[in-house]
Amino acid sequence: MLLEGNGTGTCAGGWQFVYSGVTGGQTYRLRTHARHREVANVRDSLLAVALWGKWDPATERTGTIPYNYLLPNSASPNETDFESVVTAPEGVKELTIRYVFRWTAKGTSTWSVPQIEPATAAERKPVKVCVVSDGTKMGLKTKHPMSIQGLGLAPEVEKSINLWAGLILDACDRRPQFILTPETIIGGPKPLENAVTVPGPATRPFEQIAREHHVHLMLGVYERAGGARHNSTVLISPEGKVVGVYRKAHLATSEGWSGLTPGNSLLVFSTNIGRIGSIICMDTMLPESSRMLTLNGADIIAWNEGDKSIIEATLPTEEVRYRDGGDVGETTFLLRRPHLYSTSTDDAVLGPLTAAMNAEAAKAKHKTATLGETFRV
Q1: What pLDDT score was predicted for residue 50?
Q2: With 0-12 CB in 10 A as exposed, 13-18 as middle and 19+ as buried, what is 319?
Q3: Crossing angle (nearest 10°) for helices 328-335 and 287-295
Q4: H/E segment holding residue 168
Q5: Residue numbers of the chain with a pLDDT score lower than 70
């Protein structure tokens, strides 16, 4: 099937195929391939979409029809593979696959016939999560008072370990698979003096709790790493091992001059409940934080905050869809237009006024140079 531009750059059209005999609840692998040349931007211009149901070719909007994108993967500079493993919604009997060619004045694309075959869905289980806050500030008492001693740490650090060990044990009574705390609960009020090594004496009581209760545990700590001090989250596995440490990448203003050092990675850690990433407080002010974790494959993004002693929730297993029927994750990725975002990674741009001032300065520099050269001549 050939699709090509008509010289305007504004048209959008394509081919579509309708298949009957689809079974709701069955998982399918959908694949196709496109050869292309002189297309303005392949990511923008070529699209393959699976609509669960029969879609009238003259219909512009999906309405309530659920749909999935076939995700593109460059096979060569002039070839792109499209593939997705998706589960048909219950009650569906037909599938429409549409190829779209758009937003390019010239260029051509030649598509293969769609391949549709039964597949096995990745196993997804619900995950029970507990967010633990300091219940003592609410006048509550822990059911598991702790008196861990002899860790060789500052008294205020050991006090924080005992408090939070008890609070976490309260949450363990609810049998969650994942427990997380607010930021910097371990380290005391003097982060530079009382920051702790990870793993180390301060994490061992929590490693034991994670092991005995078979729970994933994420702690907020002030971490000591060589000569640096970080605002960090520590992920401990149900085997009682520290499997990852995230160091806050975007420090609050006061943190930035207090002696704390920012981290330089937005990390995602693989676990048997999914891929877990973390953001801390000021990280949430920048959408790049959660976007990069998602691009790095995060299934769960932990943000440590709570207004109750224990907040309990179960993460669902079903796909989350936008109101127009699109899978949230696929839609978010496929709506992106990365070639437009280069300015956002330019260190010289500090804001809209700065960008405007930089542009004016560049013009002024060019004008001055031109006048100077003319004057010398």
Answers
A1: 93
A2: middle
A3: 110
A4: helix 155-172
A5: 60, 62, 322-323, 353-377
Nearest-CA neighbor of 164 among 314, 309, 312? 309
Look up tokens 């009020």; give the residue.
189
Give the three-state DSSP class for 132: strand
Read off the pLDDT of residues 267-288 as tens digits, 9 standing for 90 and up.
Answer: 999 999 999 999 999 999 998 9
* Identity of the amino acid at 355: A
Are residues 16 and 99 in contact, defined by beta-carbon separation less than 8 angstroms?
A: yes
Q: What b/e string do you get for 104-141 counting C-beta neighbours within 10 Å, with b at 16 or more?
A: beebbbebeebebeeeeeeeeeebbbbbbbbbeeeeee
* 235 in Cβ contact with 210 (< 8 Å): no
In sequence order, what are the residues at sequence separation of 6 or more whose Cβ sits closer than 8 angstroms to the Cβ of residue 48?
A: 32, 34, 69, 70, 72, 82, 97, 98, 99, 100, 114
Structural domains of the chain sorted by starting position, each given as residue range(s) with its CATH number in brackets: 2-121 (2.60.120.260), 127-315 (3.60.110.10)
**pTM, entire model:** 0.84
pLDDT digits (tens, 9 = 90+) for 295-331: 898 999 998 877 788 999 998 877 777 667 778 778 8
Beta-sheet strands, E only, within 187-254 = 216-225, 228-236, 242-247
d(CA 185, CA 197): 14
